[in-house]
Automatic annotation (TrEMBL):
It comes from Mycolicibacterium arabiense. Pfam families: ABATE (PF07336), zf-CGNR (PF11706). InterPro entries: ABATE (IPR010852), ABATE_dom_sf (IPR023286), Znf_CGNR (IPR021005). Residues 151-194 form the Zinc finger CGNR domain. Transmembrane segments: none annotated. This is Zinc finger CGNR domain-containing protein. The lineage of its organism: Bacteria, Bacillati, Actinomycetota, Actinomycetes, Mycobacteriales. SUPFAM superfamilies: Jann2411-like.
Length: 197
C-alpha cells in the first residue's frame, strides 16, 4: 500500500503546530518517501490519486503524465530541503525559492468538510504541484519561524533513507514509520544484548 503512514498513522502529536501545518508536514514526508523505500511508489496516476485523497488535497487535477511528473519534481525539491535541514541558511533559501516558484498568496477559507478557518496559499485552479508546493513550503516556513528545523530528520536506521518529521514533544523520534525501522532496530539491539549473556 502506498500510504503506510497516511495522515500520521499511529503518530500521536500534542499539536505543537496548527493542525494544517502538522498534516502538511506529514503529507510532505509521505510524498518524499514514495521513492525512498521499496522503489518508485508514485509511478501511476492511481497511486497519486490515492495519496491526494488520503490527505484531502482539493482543487484542480489534470490526471495526466505532466501532472504526475510535476509532483515527482516537487518530491525531489522537498527531499533536498530535508537533506539540508541542519543548515538553516540553506533551508531558508530553498523554502523561499519554493514559495516564490509557487507564487504563494495566503488567504483564509473553510469548507463543509473542514469548517475551521484555515489558510490556502494558491487558487484551486492552479496546477497541483503549485498548490501542494505552496502549502508545504508554508508549513516548512512555520517550522523555521519558531526555530524547530531539527524536527526534520532522516531515519536513523542504517539501511533506510526515509524522511520523517518529529512531532514528539521532546524531539526524540529517530525512526520513520515507512519501513518498520524502529521495531527492527529494537529487535536487533535486543538480540545483541541476549547474545552477550
Amino acid at each position: 500500500m502506498l500510504l503506510m503512514t497516511l495522515a500520521g498513522k499511529g503518530v500521536r502529536s500534542q499539536m505543537i503546530f496548527s493542525h494544517d501545518t502538522e498534516l502538511t508536514l506529514r503529507a510532505a514526508c509521505v510524498l518524499i518517501n514514495t521513492d525512498r523505500v521499496d522503489g518508485e511508489r508514485l509511478a501511476e496516476m492511481a497511486a497519486l490519486d490515492e495519496y491526494l485523497d488520503g490527505f484531502g488535497w482539493t482543487g484542480r487535477r489534470d490526471r495526466d503524465d505532466a501532472e504526475l511528473a510535476s509532483v515527482r519534481g516537487l518530491r525531489e525539491r522537498l527531499g533536498e530541503i530535508w537533506a539540508v535541514a541542519e543548515d538553516e541558511e540553506r533551508t531558508v533559501e530553498q523554502v523561499n525559492a519554493l514559495l516564490s516558484d509557487t507564487r504563494a498568496a495566503p488567504w483564509l477559507t473553510r469548507h463543509p468538510e473542514m469548517p475551521e478557518w484555515h489558510l490556502h496559499l494558491a487558487s484551486v485552479q492552479d496546477p497541483l504541484w503549485q498548490r501542494m508546493g505552496a502549502e508545504m513550503a508554508m508549513a516548512l516556513a512555520d517550522l523555521i519561524r519558531v526555530g524547530e528545523l531539527r524536527r526534520l530528520k532522516i531515519c536513523a536506521a542504517s539501511d533506510c533513507e526515509a524522511v520523517l518529521v518529529d512531532l514528539s514533544r521532546n524531539r526524540s523520534r529517530m525512526f520513520c514509520d515507512t519501513g518498520n525501522c524502529g521495531n527492527r532496530q529494537h529487535v536487533a539491539a535486543y538480540r545483541e544484548r541476549r547474545s552477550k549473556n
